[in-house]
Amino acid sequence: MMEQMTQFMGQLTQAVSPRDNSKAPVFKTPSIKAPDSFDGTQASKLRGFIQSYQLIFHNDHANFFSYRKKVLYSNSFLTGRAGKWIETYLSNISIEAPSYLLNNLQLFQAQLFTLFGYPNEVRKAEQELDNLRMKESGHVSLYISDFRSLMSRTGDWGERAYIHF
Prior knowledge:
This is DUF4939 domain-containing protein. Residues 11-120 form the DUF4939 domain. Residues 1-23 are annotated as: Disordered. The protein has helices at 2-16, 46-59, 67-75, 80-91, 105-116, 121-131, 140-152. It is an all-alpha fold.
C-alpha cells in the first residue's frame, strides 16, 4: 500500500510540475510600418506622424520602455526644418547632461505642436466642423469618421459638438 501511495504521489508530482516549454509557440508582436518622416512644412501631417510612432511604442513595450528611447526614436524621423530644430539638442547629447526635452515624450510632442502644428488647432477644427457636410453620394460612415476626428480636436466642446451631427 505504501508503495502504491509513493507511485501515486510521483505521478501527481509529475503531472503538476512545469513542463519543458521549449516546444511552446512563441508569441511575436506584429510588425508595424515605420513612421513617414516629418519635415515640419505641413502642419496637417503632424498628428499622423505622432500617431504612427505611438502605435509602435504601444506594440513594442520591450524596446521602448523609457521616454528617452521613445523620443530618440521619434527624432530619427524628423527631417528638414523639424530635423534642424532637434539637431541642437542631439548635437549636445554626448557632451552634457541630457536635455529635459529628450527625456519627456509629452514635452517633446507639445513642442512639436507649438513649432510645427497649426497655430490654433482647436479653432481650425471648429471651423472644419462648422463646414462639415455629408455629400449626396457620400457614405454615412465616412461622415461619422470625419465628425469624430474633428470633435476630438475641439477641446471642451463636448455635447455642443453634437449640434453639428
